[in-house]
Amino acid sequence: MSSVELGASLDRLQFRRSVHRHGWPLLLVAPVAVILLLFMYVPVLDAVRLSLTNASLLRPGSERGVGLDNYLKIATSPEFRGIAGQTVLWSVASVAGSAVLGVLAAVLLTSQRRGRPLRGRAIIGGLILAPFVAPPVVSAYVWNYLYSGSGPINGVLASLGVSEPVYFLGDTVTKLVGVALPLWSMIQVGVWHGFPFFFLMTAAALTSIPIELHEAAAIDGATGWRDFRWVTLPLIAPVLEVTIFLELLFRLGGLDLPFLLTGGGPLGATNVWGVFIYQVGFARLDIGYGAALGVALFLICTPFAIWYVRRSRRQLAGF
Amino acid sequence: MAANASAGRRATARPGRRQGISVKRLAAYALALLIVSYAVLPLYWTVITAIRPVSELLTIHPSWLPSGIQFDRFVNIWKAIPLASYMVNSAIVVTITVLIGVTVAALGGYALSRFEFPGNGMILAFVLFTQTIPTVVLLVPFYSLLHDAGFINTRVALPLSYTVWAVPYATLILRGYFRTAFSRDLEDAARVDGCSRAGVLWRIVFPLSLPGLMSAAMLIAVFAWNEFLWASLIASQEPIRTVSVGLNQFVGRFGTNENLPLWMAGAIFVALPPIILYVAAQRFVSVGYGVTER
């Protein structure tokens, strides 16, 4: 066999091996790709299409293009302006609260590793996760009960000398920092529901910090807050960032909890973007407008999304 | 906080085990107790409402400790609503979603973590990007999609939707897990010893990845068990109704004080499976995020 023939057959062999090598991973990844394409990206494009029509569930099949009318409606609707502001406040405040409380809980339960571990850590950890895994139907209903005028929280307030019951989810007159009480009450439930996830992520990240780092910091005189600020926080920052991001998106686009807790009421005081899309699309059956609201939300999330994709491909092993 | 800091300084001045019950430790316990109480407060209220006598519910500001205990609600709830049937429906949805979702995600995540192939980076970016599509954006087009396919109020609708929503998330989790959990030398060694590619997956990769697979399965299972809004839109009919929708329906029907304990008993049965799962297997959850392996 001449060297040319040998070279040619080697080429052929390499080509076949390359197909073989790439064929296998492509086969493995195909189901994911097909599912995403058919059921995520096609529907998103469909949402864009619907948003340019006056489609309605009331008269299926009779939709026609209306250009950017639905988007103009969003931009000029005074109803929507309030909802956008409430959505941002609800998302940012409940995620910030969750992050602070979750990190505090995690530091509290893991920092003791340096001495003896806090007894019963596993049980405490399990109990803290309960708000995160309890069905929103149950949490929302029970919080409604806890908040009610004749409920137990008002019972405590009454015994402290507050004469009139506080209607946490109904009183739109009382305002704190210019925001009606029901929204704050809803944010509180958001914190309660969200902090276990931060606890979970941070606790795992904390245990991976080598103890020598804390010891070195202690020798240099950094303990307590300064140890947290300059040793712990920088090391858990990547995990924290991704968690904040995921939770923020979940709040911006999620609707189970607000929907079940207040349904956007009273008088729209707790209405948020997600619930509004539901109301427009499925209660008013105005699919075109609902789709436009969805696409607008998606566009607002996109810059964050690009930042997140870049960052997580560079930084985290997990995501 | 001040006590905390001073105790901290003392501990560093005298390193070693001899701290006794320090102020710092006591403060840590107190704070931990406070946070745990906050976390379980609504669940505590659910339980005591389920067991307290009806007469107490008619009073204003029911007490934090019930005066008596009644367990009959935990029996009666099964007769009041078809809770058993809802649970079976939910279990079916969860099982199908978990099986298909984890399988698809594991294969995809494995390919994305182990192989250089054309389009690898692009597919990964597409998967990552889906995480940032708010679910609510998909509601309207997804509804019309299922409507056109004739899937609304059939047993296909929920597992299909949940699988679609769970797959990208689970793929990312498992990709991260495969990258960090064990070295690919093992797989190469098995190949050298004559194991087929599928054999490597089946005999080496999946058995070694059980914690990661478990983690993805748990997240998907709890999501599918708890989800409410979508289920109420596309699977609201009695024969296929899931627990969240069934329970919510029941609030509307018997939302009066006398029936409150009954509802709370139902809520406990519905909340128990996810809570037990997480308490028993919580160590798997963070594993899934690749956090512990960093």
Please name the CATH architecture of the largest domain in chain B.
Answer: Orthogonal Bundle
* Rg calc of chain B: 25 Å
Q: What do we call the CATH homologous superfamily of the largest domain in chain A?
A: MetI-like
Distance between the termini of chain B: 31 Å
| Count of all domains of chain A | 2
Q: In sequence order, what are the helices and strands of chain B, one letter per element? A: HHHHHHHHHHHHHH
Number of strands of chain B: 0
CATH topology assignment of the largest domain in chain A: MetI-like fold
Structural class of chain A: mainly alpha
Could you describe the largest sheet of chain B, including whether it forms a barrel? none
Average pLDDT rating of chain B:
83
Overview of this structure, please?
The complex is a heterodimer of chains A (319) and B (294). With 319 residues, chain A is an all-alpha fold. Chain A has two domains: 1-38; 77-314, MetI-like fold. Helices cover 73% and strands 1% of the residues of chain A. Chain A is built from twelve helices and two strands, in the order ααααααββαααααα. Chain A has a two-stranded antiparallel sheet. In chain A, β1 and β2 (179-180) form a beta hairpin. In chain A, α2 (69-76) packs across α12, α3 (78-110) runs parallel beside α7 and α11 runs antiparallel to α12. The longest helix of chain A is centred in the N-terminal third of the chain and has 49 residues, at 3-51. Chain A is flat, with a radius of gyration of 26 Å. The mean pLDDT of chain A is 84. Chain B is 75% helix and 0% strand. Mean pLDDT of chain B is 83; it is low at 1-19. Chain B has 14 helices and no strands. Chain B has two domains: 2-70, no CATH class; 79-288, MetI-like fold. By secondary structure, chain B is mostly helical. Chain B is globular and about 75 Å long. The interface between A and B is large, with 109 and 112 residues.
